Every structure is written in structure tokens, then in C-alpha cells.
Amino acid sequence: MQVRNASILFALGLAFGGAMAGEIEGTTVLTNGATNTSVGLASTANQNIGVAEQNGKLSNSLISATALNNSAIGIASTATQEVGFVRGNGQVTNSSVIANGASNVAAGLGATAHQMIGGAMGNGKLSNSTVIATGSFNTAGGIASNANQSIGVAK
């Protein structure tokens, strides 16, 4: 009985651990005109399209996003926009990521704007893939503001 219970717990642990990894495979994600806004003191706006986390994998897929708008307005605002992006030992393989007209804006004292398109972070790998980001912009405005834009980058 104890061996059986231990086996069940081990199997559940494997299932749970496997479920933690994000994976997008053989998939097409199309979006047009997606808007995400947060306004107010310490605002945070996160817009994720075709994103996989925790050993994330994006493979044999097409992520296409047009006319995206993400903004956070207020003191200590943070705006984060990720399109076709993986993190935590993530891999983008045999995929196409297209982001045309992606706008990411943070405004306020100490504002931070992060825009990541077609890439991988945290021991990430980008291979056999195409990344196109036409007319995409990332802006942070205000005292001590910071803007970071990564397109087709593996870190």
C-alpha cells in the first residue's frame, strides 16, 4: 500500500511539473488591434501574445500581431508587451513572429517600458525562425524613466 501511494504521488508530481512548462506548438495566433491600458497610481499593463513561460517552447508556429497598443499611465508605471516570446530556458524554433505597428508606452515618474518581440530570455534560444517587427515602438516618459526594446534577441 505504501509503495502504491508513493507511486501515485510521484506520478502526480511529474504531471504537475510537466504542466508548469508553457508550450505553443504547431499553432497559429493572429491578432489585430489588441489594446491593453492601465491608468492610475503605480499602474501596470501587461500584454502577452503567443508567450510561453517556465521552460517555455514556441515551435513550428506563426504568431502574427498587427496594430497592438499597450500603455500604463501613472506614477511608477510599468508597461510590458511580449509577442512571440519565451522565458525561463525557453526556445523559439522553426517559427515566424510578426509584429507590425506594436506600440508600448509607459508614462509617469519612474516609468518603465519593456517590449520583447520574437525572442527568448533566461538561457533562451532562438533558432531557424523569422522575426519581423515593422513600425514597432517602445516609449517611457517621465523623470527617471526607462525603455527597453528587444526584437529577435536571445538572452
How do the helices and strands line up, and which of them pair or pack?
Blueprint: H1 2-20, E1 23-25, E2 28-32, E3 35-39, E4 44-52, E5 57-59, E6 62-66, E7 69-73, E8 78-87, E9 91-93, E10 96-100, E11 103-107, E12 112-121, E13 125-127, E14 130-132, E15 137-141, E16 146-151
Parallel strand pairs: 1-5, 2-6, 3-7, 4-8, 5-9, 6-10, 7-11, 8-12, 9-13, 10-14, 11-15, 12-16
Largest sheet: 4 strands, parallel
Low-confidence stretches: 1-19
- Tell me the span between the first and last alpha carbons: 47 Å
Overall mean pLDDT score?
A: 87
- Number of distinct beta strands: 16
Q: How much helix is in the residues?
A: 10-25%
Order of strands in the sheet with the most strands?
1-5-9-13
Approximately what portion of the residues adopt beta-strand conformation? over 45%
What radius of gyration results from the CA coordinates? 18 Å
Number of helices: 1
User: What is the ordering of alpha helices and beta strands?
Assistant: HEEEEEEEEEEEEEEEE
Domain count: 1
Look at the helices and sheets and give the structural class. Answer: mainly beta
Shape: globular
How would you describe what is shown here?
- The protein has 155 residues and is mainly beta.
- The N terminus is likely disordered.
- It has one domain.
- The strands form four sheets. A four-stranded parallel sheet has the order 1-5-9-13, with no helix packed on it. The chain has a four-stranded parallel sheet with strand order 2-6-10-14, with no helix packed on it. A four-stranded parallel sheet has the order 3-7-11-15, with no helix packed on it.
- It is 12% helix and 55% strand.
